[in-house]
Give the backbone structure.
Amino acid sequence: MGLNEETKLVPGVGRMPYPAYRGKDPYIFVSYAHKDSDKVFAEIRKFNEAGFNVWYDEGIAPGNEWTDEIADALAECAVFVVMITPFSAERENVMNEINFALDEGKPFLAIHLEETELRRGLKLRTGSKQAILKYNMTEEEYEYKYIEAFTRFGLKRSEKNSETAVKSSEQVSIRQLDDLAKSFLGTDKVVSRKEAAETGEEFYDDSPEDAKKRANGDLVRIGGFDIEHGVLRGYFGSDKDITVPNAARIIVPGSFDRCRLFVESVDLNNAGKMIAGLFGTFSNCPNLKTVKIPETVKEVTPDMFHNCPNLTVYVRRSQVSSDFEARFTGRNVVYLDE
């Protein structure tokens, strides 16, 4: 169900962000305290906009027993998420839902919205389960963490759901990305191989149809890379050593997910500034040995290279913070300007 559908105002709780999911596809059950509604609704809206189905207890139909529908929704959910705050950690109904989910063996994720001292019983039951400390993360890191967790639990992102939920805002986002992409390197021109050799401009060996798509910002595949509005959507080739085409002006989290298990080197060439991919850009690439960062990238953080133990990064010292080396978990950092 999308955000455009009518939602309801619940006294003492507030306006629902969207109707709770009802259907046969896998969904997330969110447990929370009503006193935390403002905080929680902001989070489940993000989950919905990311393409995940979410059920929460305002989806109870009139006339149904509250406890029965809670139990039914818990029994059928694909993933159980509990929103932890000092208030929710003391609520009996939240503890009951946690116990039910654990007893049913549900995939379990605790999201700590605030720093919270857990009671011994709750800590004992959830201590070995995955937790995300949102209060101690940047928004980019938090988004990466919950999407990675939901995906690992086997949830798939619904394109239909996310498109319906954020149709208007997504259109704005695409236009903004397109404008930003153009501002980084200018508008692509369709040049011949000879002109490219003479001027140094990049030559794209694509068909006239693809050249037109590229010029319009439409989705086009260049050398195995899917690029849309200047945004790198993914690499679908099989080469271990890849060079990103200049047309990919914006790198986002997930750009290299499809090749992360086999890629060994990435040359960003003259690709654009990583405005949307500062966390997890090259995450979980066990065989990645080298990444070359161009001058067009203005900010490089160690969080971009999460869980890449064999990696050597080639970068300029002016692009990184003073604590970059101390926080970098790869093998080595080579400064190109030294």
